[in-house]
Specification:
With 310 residues, the chain is α+β, with helices and mostly antiparallel strands. Helix content is 50%, strand content 9%. Strands 2-1-4-3 form a four-stranded antiparallel beta sheet. A hairpin with a 4-residue loop joins strand 3 and strand 4 (257-266). Mean pLDDT is 79; it is low at 1-45. It folds into three domains: 49-156, no CATH class; 164-175 and 271-301; 180-266, Chitinase A, domain 3, CATH 3.10.50.
Length: 310
């Protein structure tokens, strides 16, 4: 029987790319300078306490918050009059710096004035909209602010390279993320009712199936066994794995009945750390960065009460 070959791939989800990029930044170390004088025994407890305080992620979080508001003040300087819009020198310079990415020319006075006018108009609309409460209940504004704060937190986390023991312990718990899964390849006719599927099976076995059925039959190549239940149902997965290779048979999926032929079955292969060390270290670094960032955010939850409406 001739069948059209079409590739079928399981759907994959993409993680937040920007946060992963922030989480995967290489670790940086701050320099330390030794003091010229010796630390006395009396000052040692205070020194230790200060070091403990400075290492607290929550302190870093609040310092970042202060820096964020300070940076925002450059674009939106405080004013006693909400109807006063200040175009700061730093703002004008930012327009000049970003006018031409190739730095081949600087904006003329007219160009600069157009950019300032556009910014002023945007600032007016922003303030008027905020005064009307248009920012409340807007998921886009909420997500954008939360996203910017997440970036600030992730940017502050510094994760060193894992030790051999740390990496091996982590890999032992996460090796399934690197293992090559067991895969199967099979032919499958479109879903239909049981009676029609049985007639199709007789036609295929007798080699007088219709041209339309041949065109509609798909070949699924290298499908991970672990994804079969989610895509077709557990009974379909179990039945397919019990089928002898090369024989047509009936199987029922979540969508209906099919005529199916198992063509190939490839066993899974456990991964070895030595073969995926660089990739494993990179993913460990991402996971550890996320964990530490979450540890910095978690204490803030103590300031809130979460209620669920019935």
């Amino acid at each position: 029987m001739k069948c059209k070959e079409t590739m079928s791939a399981s759907a994959t989800s993409t993680a937040a790319q920007t946060l992963d990029t922030a989480a995967e930044r290489p670790a940086q170390r701050d320099g330390h300078h030794e003091a010229g004088a010796k630390i006395t025994a009396a000052s040692e407890p205070n020194f230790t306490a200060r070091r403990r305080l400075l290492s607290e992620p929550l302190l870093h979080f609040f310092v970042l918050g202060g820096l964020m508001f300070a940076a925002d003040a450059i674009r939106h300087p405080p004013s006693n009059d909400e109807k006063v819009i200040i175009v700061s020198k730093a703002l004008r310079q930012s327009f000049i710096d970003h006018f031409d990415e190739d730095k081949q020319r600087t904006p003329s006075s007219a160009d600069l004035q157009k950019m300032v006018d556009a910014w002023v108009a945007s600032e007016i609309l922003y303030r008027e909209g905020k005064a009307l409460g248009l920012d409340r209940g807007d998921e886009m504004i909420r997500d954008r602010i939360a996203f910017k704060l997440q970036l600030l937190i992730f940017d502050q986390v510094r994760v060193p390279e894992p030790s051999e023991a740390q990496l091996r312990a982590w890999f032992a718990d996460n090796h399934a993320r690197f293992d090559a899964p067991e895969r199967v390849s099979f032919f499958m006719t479109p879903a239909t009712d049981e009676s029609a599927a049985r007639q199709q099976l007789e036609d295929i076995r007798g080699q007088h199936e219709s041209e339309e059925l041949r065109d509609q039959t798909r070949i699924i190549l290298g499908r991970p066994v672990s994804s079969l239940a989610g895509g077709y149902g557990e009974s379909f997965r179990d039945g397919l794995l019990k089928m002898p290779q090369g024989e047509w048979s009936l199987l029922r999926s979540n969508d209906g009945w099919h005529v199916v032929r198992l063509d190939a079955r490839e066993p899974g292969t456990p991964a070895k750390l030595e073969d995926v060390r660089d990739e494993a270290a990179k993913i460990w670094h991402t996971d550890e960065t996320r964990r530490q960032a979450w540890d910095a955010v978690t204490p803030l939850k103590a300031n809130y009460t979460v209620r669920y409406e019935p």
